[in-house]
Amino acid sequence: MNTNKLNLIPLSLASLTILAGTILVSSVVSADDSVVDEINITVPLSCTLSGTGMDAHNAEINNGTYNSAIGETTLKAFCNDNEGFAIYAIGYTDNEEGKNVLTNSTLGSTYDITTGTAITGNDSKWAMKLTKLTSPTPTYPIIVAGSTEDSLKEQGDPDYSTFQEVPDDYEKVAYRTSATDTGVNAEGATLTTTYQAYISKTQPAGTYTGQVKYTLVHPHDTAAPQKPITIETAYTNAGKQKYNGYYKIQDMNPTICSNVNQYSGDGMAEVIDVRDNSIYHIAKLADDNCWMLDNLALDPTDPTTAQNMNASNTNATTEAITNLLNGSSSTTGWSNVAVIDVDTNFYAGYTVPRINNASKDTLVTSYGPASTNGQAKVGIYYNYCAATVGTYCYAENGANLPGTAIDAQMDVCPTGWRMPTGGDAGEYYNLAQKYSNTTAGIDSLQYDLSASLSGAYSVSSASGQNSNGGWWSSTYNAYNNGRNMYGLLVSPTSVDPNSSNGYNRGVGLPVRCLASD
Q1: pLDDT tens readout for residues 138-194
Q2: Domain holding 95: CATH number?
Q3: Do 180 and 319 reside in the same domain of the chain?
Q4: Do 139 and 277 reside in the same domain of the chain?
Q5: pLDDT tens digit string along 69-125?
């Protein structure tokens, strides 16, 4: 029996050993081991305002009669959130916001048909009417002009059922305070618009034209769009006074520029430079900046101009202007505006301010509103030292540059204006980006900017006139060992706002100025 007991004990131990070994080599997966794959789908905000029946509404109305059904347009508004929207209307004759008359270009403004609801009388009138649609379904009601939100909540959604004068400023004609149609059909909120006109017995025969512009804003309590105004009106509103019959270019400021309308066939203004009484055209272009549309013609070698230049009318300090104007000399084709303390051991084309004024009144091919019969004056050719009022006058090989990427800080532009920035992030580039890189886009940019093929001046003569043109920028270009600066290059078929090589600082180029921000 003792022997049997001894045999049982090792057997039990062996079993335990095998079991322990099995536990040690087993792989156990925890229930907490997991991964989460996150999916994010962003639905962008989208608001649309569209119309059907937007073709010109034509009607023939005899003298002394009235027509209350001049065309019908369906407007459809949709925003895919719960913030609502508002629709504003404004008269829009001849592409001018706030002009709410029907005009006949042949007869002139004396015979304009003004807005009003008269259906008889001695004066011709026209008006508009909006009416909510009840289909397609589901149609969510659109709150319309004529009632307050509180009364509409009590009364429902009354139709805008009577004709109203066309507004001469942005007027809210419809709005919703919450989501538009979010049903399966998602048609949006809809309304119709129709027009009426009464033609007096004395109205001359002819075709009279006008428009109404509708603008959607989001959310519903967004402030009304601002009606752009002309540059001259902006000067007047800012309390500026005219000088010799023109507003001063030096009186431009960011507030005036922000308030004016972009150039689109109108909106250009003539202003005067008080330093030499030169007249320049200016306009707000597609980049929302105000630009000079003529090449600068300021001649600092002219004694009267020099006497009038100071820090209050020039984009430079008193010290820089004094330094620039201290004496003068001449070489073939150039006028040197001598500078105090300039190291004349360097090539003068880089270290001495030079201009060429012999070409000032030369006419060259030009495009746009500032051109006369397709031509414009060259203006002054400035080497870069002169363009920067003698403050950027470094050696021909870039020696003595106070850094590897220095930009010009001062220039010959009027106070309130400056040379544009260049390069692939500059203001020339940003302007060009507003236009398509197509023949039509290039033509439009050249026209709006009044691009002139004014060429350049080098050594002793002008070259490239009527073939190409360009203007200085304030931006440094490292090409050619620091000799160059960025600029804008134009030809009859191209506009290059980011020329990789830029322009050599020793040559003469025109200057165009941009209103300072």
Answers
A1: 334 444 444 444 333 333 343 456 888 898 888 887 777 766 555 555 556 777 889
A2: 2.60.40
A3: no
A4: no
A5: 998 888 888 888 888 888 888 998 876 788 899 999 889 889 999 999 999 999 999
pLDDT of residue 162: 81
Closest CA to 461 of 414, 393, 507: 507
Pairwise CA distance, residues 165 & 198, whole Å: 13
The pLDDT of residue 344 is 34
The reply to whether 403 and 509 lie within a common domain is: yes
Q: Does 294 lie in the same domain as 198?
A: no
Nearest-angstrom CA–CA distance, 468 and 276: 28
Taking the C-alpha atoms of residue 181 and residue 361, their distance in angstroms, rounded to an integer, is: 63
Q: What pTM was estimated for this model as a whole? A: 0.64
CA–CA distance, 286 with 263 (Å, rounded to integer)? 8
Hey, how many other C-beta atoms are within 10 angstroms of the C-beta on 402? 6
What's the chain's Rg over C-alpha atoms? 36
Q: What is the DSSP string of 182-226?
A: -SSS---EEEEEEEEEEE-TTPPSS--B--EEEEEESSTTPPPPP
- Last residue of a domain, which of 171, 193, 217? 217
Tell me, yes or no, whether 417 and 296 share the same domain.
yes
Handedness of CA 437, 442, 443, 447 (dihedral sign): positive
- Taking the C-alpha atoms of residue 351 and residue 342, their distance in angstroms, rounded to an integer, is 7
Domain containing residue 495: 249-515
* Same domain (yes/no): 198, 262: no
Residue 176 sits at the vertex; the CA angle it makes with 216 and 147, to the nearest 5 degrees, is: 105
Q: What is the mean pLDDT of the chain?
A: 80
pLDDT of residue 138: 37
Q: Is 213 exposed, middle or buried (0-12, 13-18, 19+ CB in 10 A)?
A: middle
Q: Which two tokens stand for residue 373?
A: 């019969």
Nearest to 299 by CA among 316, 320, 278: 278
Burial of residue 364 (number of CB atoms within 10 Å: 0-12, 13-18, 19+): buried
- Structure tokens, 224: 């009304």
Do 307 and 256 share a domain, yes or no? yes
56 belongs to a structural domain = yes
How many alpha carbons lie under 13 Å from residue 242 in its C-beta half-sphere? 11
**437-468 pLDDT per residue, tens:** 888 889 999 999 999 999 998 877 889 999 99
Tokens linked to 146: 């004529």
